[in-house]
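U., I forgot to send this yesterday:
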Amino acid sequence: MQTLKYFILISVILLGLVFVFGPEMVPENFQRQEILDVAKNSDVIIIFNSGGWGNTPIEKAKDFTPIIDGIQKTLKERGYNSVVIPYNRTKDNLLGKITGVKEFFNFFRNSSEILADDIELLTKILPDKKIIIAGLSAGGALANETIKKISERAENSVSPVRQNLSNGVYAIAAGIPFWVETLESDNILRLDNENKDPLSKGEAKTLLFTLFKAPFKWFSAKILGSGLSFSQALQFSGHQYSWESAEVSSSIESFLEAKLTSSNF
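Result:
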């Protein structure tokens, strides 16, 4: 029994040391030639970032793909071709997920800096393209932080390229968690299901109940063989976003219409 206690204690200490001092595993995104190949015939580049760990392929992100499809359809109806480029926040391994957790508690300061660098490079290579960062939940938080970084760079730079950077970069962020400091900017649209999303509102009772229930729900699903992932078991009621919702589709259409008719788009 004593040996087991020491083993648990040492394991906890080692995990803590890995969390604090372990190497960061950041995914590689935006290969230059690949972007040039897929974006050369498009007017708008949509940078897609899923919720959860932020590494769900777009074809499997059933909770957000319909909204991406809606954005593309809206752009196409107004004469703009678009391309979707997935952007992964975390690598799909232990160290990658530890890095992801650190970033989550760090308000995505490092990953938003990397994404802002990537977008700045994109605008230099493809200056005539417009960019929309689209993210759900934690992906929405990353979009918010990235727009914040881009705005700061534009304000604090004497470079004409950087000053014009924020004119062509926009964000559509759904379900940003309540603890993230949101940016007030005309370049970002935030969706919160008309203030009914408990994660965006910070409804402690609903969040705690869901957190308590999730492990049991996940374990039961494992026994029954339903294949429910832990992130799916952790879904908060009201944190789902559907293009069929008037608040979602009309808000996005109005936002894009305003940008399309402005001199900046």
